[in-house]
Design brief:
This protein is α/β, with parallel strands linked by helices. Helices cover 34% and strands 21% of the residues. Bound molecules: adenosine-5'-triphosphate and magnesium ion. The site of magnesium ion (MG) has 3 residues, from helix 5.
Length: 545
């Protein structure tokens, strides 16, 4: 029996399609040679011109019994997905033009896979935060420029490891032997998780954050001060008149611009003056035929005035309306958000856990918009001076639980945040402002935003609606790889997109400095003797919100 014939009997390719290869294995032991047969493992197919196709195993089935095959053993059938060709020793994704008949079918060797991944990025070690799940000795480097330049989505059920992954990615990006680098990241931290992971971060929460209300645009101002569910033109008009009057009064710029001020112009106004104007209109008496009569808006603005007074008296909103916030200069706001304070920081954590739910969308909108406009105006300066790279201080905005701020519903409640974040999703790339979204419910996130993401980290996902949603958005014909999503272990994910050589299941590397998102050990805690609870301390926290 010649060499060629013997190999055919071990395994052979029955059919090859652009997105599928079907293989029969006749002699399993000889085929495996000590390796293991598993979904996700890599295959090496070679034609008689020496071209090599790399494919990944999608499913495995066995047919026939030893008795039926008269001692020839069981026959195994594999379906694989072609990933690309090895051309002159280098892997080329997408190209699957191998000639039929296939001469040789075998499991790709550890060395071969390692070489493919190692050589996949040109810049030295590449940007690497994960290893192949099926072979943790193999690093999976990414193209860091492509990864951060195009938006990133991290999806997975609760506890699948999203926060941990966000942490590991950002730590890798900010880590240098020399300490601080030029990375700029702003994290919207809804559960106070990230402070533990970034001890040197610039941490902002409602006690030290200052976001002046007068920086809000018209959508934000109206969402904040007006009853947006109702459609009260009187409120809207009086509010608008009051704001513009107050802006004009305090305006210190050139005279010809004073008449051009709008709700959107980011200049100082005194919110109390707007309130007083509304009170005036609400109590106004005008001359009538038989003496004085109630003015056109008399009594019609009472609800609006009540709302505004409640807001101005609410201590939890001091970061927007308080003395410190209203006096904060524009420069100081930008410095604070970009990590250019007295301490310089790569990571700014915006702990929004204390922000009252009803103003969360506005807060997120305002910060996102300020950072987008930073990129926009910085690009104008740099383009004017002929700089080739339009933003040499690019920034990444990280939204934890993104479905909370940018839901896929038309509700006016979230309009401000949705508008601001959608704008970044659509245009941010050009200005050096990109997004990283983490969510348990990808199907509930605005599709406009999600469909602009080019890099996906899909962790364990159990809900079928969410799985289907992810399937639709994934590039390449991912086929049944998506079916493995519900079975992924914590910290494992399907990594795909422009920055990675080929879609693969990886394990996110561990970190010494994890976020404070640990699972609570219920069973162990419940076994312990009764714990006293400091209700006084809890009440104080509660009342002090
Ligand atoms: N790559 C990993 N290596 C080791 N442990 C991990 C890894 N990823 C996650 N874990 C552990 O799994 C637990 C849950 O992770 P994490 O908090 O990141 O989940 P999550 O997806 O953000 O959940 P949620 O949606 O509820 O916020 C944590 O206790 C974390 O320590
Ligand atoms: Mg989380």
């Amino acid at each position: 029996m010649n060499e060629e014939h013997r190999e055919e009997l071990i395994a052979q390719a029955d059919s090859i399609y652009p997105s599928r290869v079907n293989i029969t294995i006749y002699d399993l032991d000889a085929f495996l040679q000590g390796g293991t047969l598993a979904v996700g493992a890599y295959l090496h197919l070679e034609d008689n011109t020496g071209k090599v196709l790399i494919a990944t195993i999608e499913n495995i089935s066995a047919s026939g019994t030893e008795a039926e095959d008269q001692g020839a053993g069981r026959v195994y059938r594999l379906a694989g997905q072609p990933l690309g060709m090895l051309v002159n020793g280098r892997f080329e994704r997408g190209n699957t033009a191998i000639a039929f008949p296939v001469q040789k079918v075998e499991l790709a060797s550890h060395g071969e896979i390692r070489k493919i991944f190692e050589e996949s990025v040109s810049d030295g070690d590449g940007f690497c935060f994960a290893r192949l799940a099926s072979d943790v000795d193999i690093r999976v480097p990414l193209d860091g420029n492509r990864f951060f330049n195009k938006h990133i989505a991290i999806v997975g059920s609760t506890g699948s490891g999203k926060s941990y992954t966000v942490t590991r990615i950002l730590q890798t990006a900010c880590q240098t032997r020399a300490g601080r680098n030029n990375a700029h990241v702003v994290i919207f931290d809804i559960h106070s998780e990230y402070r533990a992971a970034f001890p040197d971060a610039n941490c902002l929460d409602i006690s030290n954050l200052a976001l002046p209300y007068w920086l809000m645009n018209s959508t934000e101002l109206q969402e904040f001060f007006l009853d947006t569910e109702g459609n009260d033109h009187n409120q809207r008009n009086v509010f608008k008149e009051g704001v513009i009057m107050s802006k004009a009064k305090h305006f210190k710029g050139p005279e010809e611009l004073r008449n051009k001020l709008t709700l959107d112009t980011p200049v100082f106004f005194e919110i109390e003056e707007v309130l007083n104007y509304a009170i005036e209109k609400n109590e106004e008496m005008v001359a009538g035929a038989r003496g004085e009569k109630a003015g056109p808006l008399n009594g019609k603005l009472s609800n609006f005035i009540d709302r505004m007074e409640t807001k101005l008296g609410d201590r939890r909103l001091a970061f927007l309306l308080g003395e410190r916030a209203r006096r904060q200069s524009f420069d100081a706001v930008l410095r604070q958000l970009m990590g250019y304070g007295t301490e310089r920081s790569n990571v700014t954590i915006l702990d929004v856990s204390g922000v009252p739910f009803e103003v969360l969308s506005i807060t997120v909108s305002l910060v996102s918009r300020i950072l987008f406009e930073y990129g926009y105006f910085y690009k104008r300066i740099r383009s004017a001076s002929g700089a080739e790279i339009h933003n040499d201080v690019p920034v990444l905005l990280v939204y934890e639980e993104a479905h909370k701020y940018v839901p896929n519903t038309g509700s006016v409640k979230y309009r401000a945040a949705r508008e601001s974040i959608e704008r970044i999703a659509k245009e941010g790339r050009k200005y050096g402002v990109s997004l990283m979204l983490a969510s348990q419910r990808p199907s509930e996130i605005s599709e406009t935003i999600f469909s602009q993401c080019n890099n996906f980290v899909a962790m364990r996902l159990t809900n079928p609606t969410d799985q289907n949603f992810v399937k639709r958005l994934l590039p390449d014909s991912m086929g049944s790889v998506v079916d493995s999503l519900p079975a992924l272990r914590t910290g494992e994910c399907l990594l795909t997109g422009e920055a990675v050589l080929m879609p693969c299941i990886v394990k996110i590397q561990s970190t010494d400095c994890p976020p404070a998102s640990n699972d609570i050990p219920y069973w162990s805690l419940w076994q312990e003797p009764w714990h006293e609870l400091n209700i006084d301390a809890i009440r104080e926290q509660w009342m002090d919100r």
